[in-house]
Specification:
Udp-n-acetylmuramoylalanyl-d-glutamate--2,6- Diaminopimelate Ligase, Chain: A, domain 1; 37% helix; inorganic pyrophosphatase (n-terminal core); elongated; single chain; alpha/beta; 3 domains; Diaminopimelate Epimerase, Chain A, domain 1; six-stranded mixed β-sheet
Length: 550
């Protein structure tokens, strides 16, 4: 039995903490809960620093997802097996009754060929078909035998009747000679003369009713004339009524305009299509086009949602798209509260620490779960990244203690390792303005003012100044494209523990001058903030305070 899946995912534009904490927390949950599979995901592209960390410890990147909206794969898909196009109408009808469905998929090699419904079968039965229907539909002998509950006396059950008509031999042999043609299927009784006449007139099949015996002479003549003999316990009337039910379903199945859905299709789109159609059931196929089952409107009523654990964020606007359609189970974070709205109570652990990975480290210790070398390396890297190797004002004694313990488990020297990690992350010369801008960017709002804040950290002052020239025109574009009031961008020098802040948008300069009174103004909308390296603890609170006073 497949385990239920829960996805552990960080915020959009993921940083090292967001990615590494998702991986580490998924591992912890898998250790604690053997009945569920916890899968780490990421909601954006990896930056160079995070790629460096994952490569250092040989850990594959979490799967990238653009949204967590409900999909067909989240619905209970009914496993209605596909049937062969050659089975009879009667067999299809019986199968539908036995398994309790109104639609049967017709498949070949797991590919959907068509559909047949109970309504199609009822229509086929009620419509008046001419006497050549069986041959027009290329009916297989086996179908006729099964439909008539009969026995094949002479002939091959794989033989296909592709010519002639069906008729009842109710007249005397002299009259029969005038209307039996080559290839006909003749329904008759126990009269030797009628059986002989039908064979001599080159009928392709005779159906002997009421289980009447067939003489050796008739059998011999049938073999010599390539005539099939079927014996049935039913009377002539019943056989006449049943025989058209031996027609293969391919003759009546619908192949045009079929509405199918992929397992990856979003349920809100599926619901819209269903609302416009009167069909009861809709076939489902996988990403390779293989048929896997059926869904109906009823299935959507009991639809499951993707189950999510959020790490390193707790606000909807920073979360992966479609979070409002997901079922949030837990939130593990170290940021200010701006929590998403949930349908049910959730486990929410929020601590004023420098890094989410520190909280997860504490949870490992609280549950007495061992931390392997790779996981220790990831969590240590996250702490060093978020605290700028303990230089950030967000850093606490718990962060330092956790990082040093994890470094020992991972077998790394913090000072040497951090320099390599930061240099990998600050290699920005070949990046486009878009890549730089969105590497670590978040949106906020206060008093109906929407603003965004991005940040780039580097150990090279000249590199930061080059970025400044590249990023300012792109910021102007984003101010318009995103429809927000202000944009701020932090160029943080990790060696000097300072930030050059670019402010754009009407009133953005006044906000910074109010928030950081006396901060040197380097250019129009450009300020130098000494000792400011943390967006979360040093910049955002001051900006929110200044805006609240407007």
């Amino acid at each position: 039995m497949d385990k239920k899946q829960v996805f552990v995912i960080g915020h959009k534009n993921p940083d090292t903490d967001s990615v590494c904490s998702a991986i580490a927390y998924a591992r912890l949950k898998n250790k604690l809960d053997k009945n569920t599979e916890y899968v780490p995901l990421r909601a954006g592209q990896l930056n160079e620093e995070t790629q460096y960390v994952l490569k250092q410890f040989g850990v594959p990147a979490p799967l990238y997802v653009t949204d967590v909206k409900s999909q067909v794969k989240d619905i209970e898909i009914r496993k209605v097996e596909g049937v062969n196009r050659n089975i009879s109408i009667k067999a299809a009808w019986k199968l539908m009754r036995d398994i309790g469905v109104v639609t049967l998929p017709i498949t070949e090699d797991n590919r959907l060929e068509g559909l047949i419904t109970i309504a199609d079968i009822a229509t086929s039965y009620m419509d008046v078909h001419d006497s050549t229907t069986l041959s027009t539909a290329r009916t297989v002998c086996k179908n006729i035998v099964e439909t008539l509950d009969g026995e094949l006396i002479i002939g091959d059950e794989a033989h296909v009747f592709d010519r002639g008509k069906v008729l009842v031999a109710a007249a005397n042999p002299d009259l029969m000679e005038s209307y039996i043609k080559m290839g006909d299927i003749v329904i008759l009784g126990n009269r030797y003369e009628s059986q002989l006449c039908a064979i001599e007139m080159q009928a392709s099949c005779i159906v002997v009713c009421e289980g009447a015996p067939v003489s050796m002479t008739i059998k011999k003549l049938a073999v010599e004339n390539h005539c099939t003999i079927i014996s049935t316990p039913h009377d002539t009337f019943t056989v006449s009524r049943l025989i058209n039910q031996s027609v293969p379903i391919s003759f009546f199945m619908r192949t045009e305009g079929l509405i199918t859905f992929s397992t990856d299709a979003y349920t809100d789109e599926v619901r819209q299509v269903m609302a416009k159609k009167r069909h009861r059931d809709f076939p489902i196929h996988d990403e390779r086009g293989n048929y896997i089952g059926m869904i109906s409107r009823r299935n959507l009523l009991g639809m499951g949602k993707k189950q999510i654990i959020m790490v390193d964020h707790n606000e909807a606007k920073q979360a992966v798209d479609g979070i409002d359609q997901a079922d949030i189970l837990e939130i593990i974070d170290h940021h200010k509260l701006g929590a998403v709205e949930t349908m049910n109570p959730v486990f929410f652990r929020n601590q004023p620490l420098g890094c989410t990975a520190t909280i997860i480290y504490l949870m490992y210790k609280e549950n007495n779960i061992d931390i392997d070398k790779k996981t220790a390396g990831l969590m240590c890297s996250a702490i060093l990244s978020d605290t700028l190797m303990f230089r950030s004002p967000t850093c606490t004694a718990s962060d330092v203690e956790a990082a040093r313990a994890l470094a020992q488990l991972a077998g790394i020297v913090i000072e040497d390792y951090a320099v390599g990690m930061f240099r990998a992350g600050s290699n920005l010369k070949d990046k486009t303005p878009e890549e730089i801008f969105f590497q670590d960017y978040k949106r906020f709002s206060v008093n109906e003012i929407n603003f965004g804040v991005g940040q780039i950290s580097s150990m090279d002052a000249d590199e930061l100044m080059d970025i400044k020239g590249k990023i300012m025109p792109y910021m102007e574009e984003q101010l318009h494209n995103q429809g927000i009031n202000m944009i701020f961008f932090m160029l943080t020098n990790m060696i000097e523990t300072s930030t050059v802040l670019i402010a754009m948008g009407q009133g953005s300069g006044q906000v910074i001058e109010s928030a950081f009174d006396g901060a040197p103004k380097l250019d129009e909308g450009v300020y130098r903030l000494e000792g400011v390296v943390s967006r979360k603890k040093q910049l955002i609170p001051e900006i929110l305070t200044a805006m609240s006073q407007e």
